Amino acid sequence: MTTDKEKRRAISREAARRRRRVESEVFEDLSRLLPLQQSVRDHLDKPSVIRLTLSYIRMHTLLTGKTGTKAEASHKVKCGQVTDGQMIRHEFNGGYGEEEEKERYDADASEETNMYLRILEGFLMVLSTEGDMIYLSENVSKYMGLTQAELMGHNIFEFSHPCDHEELRNNLRVTAEEVWSGEKRDFVMRIKSTLTHKGRSANLKSATWKVLHCQGRSKVCVAPSSVSCLLLTCQPLPLSHTLLSTQTFTSQHSMDMRFTYCDQRMTLLLGYSTEELLGRSIYDLCHTRDTNCLTKNHFNLCFKSQSVSGRYRMLVRGGGYVWVESHSAVIPNAHSSKSRPGANQPLCILCVTYVLSGVEEPSLQLSLDQTVHI
Amino acid sequence: MRPQPPPGTPVPVCGMSAGGCDGAADWPADVSDGSSLPAVELPRKRKGDMEERLSMDCKMEDDLSRSEEEDQQVKIKCFREPHRQIEKRRRDKMNNLIDELSAMIPACQPMAQKPDKLTVLRKAVQHLKALKVGTSSAFADSTNKPSILPQDDLRQLLLRQAADGFMLVVSCDRAKILFISESVSKILNFSLLELTGQSLFDLIHPKDINKVKEQLSSWEYPQEHMIDAATGLQVQTDAPIKPTHLSSGAWRSFFCRMKHSRVAGKQEEKHQLPCTAKKKDTSRYCTLHCTGYMRSCPSSQLDSEGDAETPSLSCLVMLCRPLPHGSPQSPKHINAKPSAFVTRCAIDGKFTFVEQQATTVIGYLPQEVLGTSCYEYFHQDDLQHLAEKHRQVLRSKEKIETQCYKFKTKYGSYVSLQSQWFSFTNPWTKEVEFIVSSNRVMSGPGHIKDEEAGRLKAMQEEIPIIPSLSNGVGTMIYAGSIGTQIANELIDSYRVNSSPSSGASSPFGSTNEKCPLVSPPISTSASSGGGAASSSSQSDSRTAAGASSATADSSGQVSQLDLDGMVVPALSSFSSDEAAMAVIMSLLETEVNVGQPGDYEDLHWPF
Q: What is an example of a GO molecular function annotated in this UniProt entry (chain B) (predicted)?
């Protein structure tokens, strides 16, 4: 009896091994078709192969799909340039020497793209409406530590800060509901990064949070299948080594956005002396219609520790205003004694503000501060 | 950047570990099946390799044992979870992936029953092969690094859609445009041909030319300012940066305005070239954020890998991204109709910001009303309702709509306005800092007719003189005091932790007896501010002067009496309109000086 049982077991084991072998071969075939480097390919497990295959197919659909809703020429132009890409490809199809031309074209494109990504100091991310990272540009490893192959196909919610999930969900939901391509997005999000100080990759368990400024637009494809996604460039927001020109100034604030310090350029550009500003709220200094912009910026600072403000108006001392944009971050208070990290270290906000315009409407006095005579 | 979290707030710490959550499923571990693929090395070795980047000890072991799932003896036990559950999870995950895959493959769609795993995989292989037909050879060839997207598509995606910018390379000496990417045509509406070789300064707004010059030549410029984010302090280097430093790419970031053509660039209908624009040309400009690196490159070619030793030409390689055009971001909270103007008041109702459009409506220039209280311009009919709304807006996160009300213009006439008020709360301190008002004109300016004015006067004469009010000790009861009063309620409500009990004995208890017009403090206000409104009958009475004279008194009883002399009951507590009118009239017409704002805390108003 036992031999029978053993025999049957042996047969089934053999059958299982055969099945697995066949399956592995198919997985191997699949992974070979993916445009990955050999070294990456060798390390892929089965779920990853599927994950990357899915990404590949989705990106392909996205790029070759028709955009916009009704197939009107004007809309196609407005919504997506993908058709241009298609056209270019078709132009190059079928022809003898054109294969080379195509290669050169792509080589140029590749170089431009690489340069672009480098200057951008960020990476490209394509998100499905469920939050799957359908595509990530290769340089994502430079910012997140984890590589393109490790991340692509996974869901952004696994890597972003829980407190930012709601904002993310809103952005994705709006994308799903959208009819036209091209709606802009601009938000700040915290993401896991396994990079250490020295730039090496660490274990995911010791990952730290990195603040990313994400900007981009939505993209809607109707054919062959209805697919919406978000195209985003994600940039970390560093403040170090910012080259400051005469048109840029720094200021420090307490967490409620009251001035604690400003450099002399602010006095030159806006007319307020440091003494005048200390203790004043930035909201008092800006055009009322920009209150929302400032509030959003402030919120990002309080909860995400870094922010880019977008354009707003700062009132100039004698009258008028200038358009500015601020890049800010929460930092430990420089003027306090160096206490141990983790202790209740007082925080402050550091703003680097770029002046975008000249003084507009210099004779106009809109706020109480402007009317106070020097 | 290493921000530390303040206690009790969700600010993340950069040093804080973000790891440890179960998001890392299915890391690309080693292919564990040993049959046709490179043999699986001993677990220990691989683990050391991958585990630096991945986590999930448990998962690692699982992956390795996956191939042996049916062979119980070889299983590596995982102590964290029952193995069955881990297996099940993995199977489920795989099944989900297979399902997703079959959904993406057209060949799998019309099948009657769900295809099995192997079939789906085989179809996927076929599908990928089909997709690759007709795509560029750079896709997976050896010269370029293979990438998951054709490079051209990636560029399209990046430049045109996601990033919405163009690349620009300019020489540093003369700002000659050496290279500009195609996407510029979409942003500035000029074609590549028109721009390449031109001077960048032809494109830049005249007022920004100096700024751009500075950015291009800064490496020679003695004043280099860097900011050290760790300390927030500026580091000033006086020495010019040597050319050798350029090869590592000095970073630049600035904003500038560039000309753009109105008409979308069709080759034939080209607008004036930027350099041939007439002086009177009312060009439109859009603001761009330019970021990039300094680079050295050989004179005639654009070479991003420039030769650091013999820089023949230094240039700036930039990415230029446009900011939203024109007018500010559409304000969601602030209603901005053309006939409307926006004002901002402190919480006591004093104007701190007035848009210039207001002048056409109210006659005053902003500087003429700034610093004065809005209550000075409200018509007496509206004081009650507006004070009510004032209280409401300070305690609400919503926009408050006022009814129509009259606003006194410079010329004495009244104009009908309707406003939307919104109080701004500081995200950090959670305290209300100011009120934003979006005001619109309802109808043509109305005038109070003479008969009406006469009637008001008559009413005034009928009402018996309130003895307490004329006992003024030189204090002025001002319309503005209503606003101040309401503001003080709020300030106190911040200081008092718990809701003030409305049953507390009120220092004004005696007031009711002294002043016949004052009815018991019945609050009709809908304010929810911790019961503060319930004692508003007394609260309105406090004027700045009143407080200051009160604080001078040491005897509590005496101070109360003095104050009582100046008590003016709350508008909302009046039982008769006439009585209300009388008090308001007296408020508006009594000529008394306003003293210095005092410190009310000592008085322990029961708010």
A: DNA binding
Which of B285, B353, B372 to probe the A interface (max A CBs under 10 A)? Answer: B353
d(CA A10, CA B73): 14
Q: State whether B179 and B113 are in the same domain.
A: no
Q: Return the residue matching tokens 């709006």.
A: A174
Among A residues 91-150, those touching chain B with beta carbons less than 8 Å apart: 92-93, 99, 102-103, 105-107, 109-113, 115-121, 124, 126, 135, 137-138, 145-146, 148-150
Cβ-based contacts of B167 with chain A (< 8 Å) = 112, 115-116, 119
B355 assigned to some structural domain? yes
CA of A33: which chain B residue's CA is closest? B128
- Taking the C-alpha atoms of residue B154 and residue B148, their distance in angstroms, rounded to an integer, is 9
Interface contact A246, partner B, CB < 8 A? yes
Domain that holds residue A47: 37-61+121-236
How far apart are the C-alpha atoms of A344 and A361, rounded to whole Å? 45
Q: Identity (one letter) of the amino acid at B518? A: V
Q: What is the ipTM of this complex?
A: 0.72
Token reading at A14: 């053999």
pLDDT digits (tens, 9 = 90+) for A169-187: 988 887 777 666 667 788 8
Residues B317 and B181 in one domain: yes
B26 pLDDT more than 50: no
pTM: 0.62
H or E element that contains A235:
strand A227-236
Contact B101 A17 (CB under 8 A): no
CB A313 within 8 A of CB A218: no
| CB spacing of A246 vs B25 below 8 angstroms | no
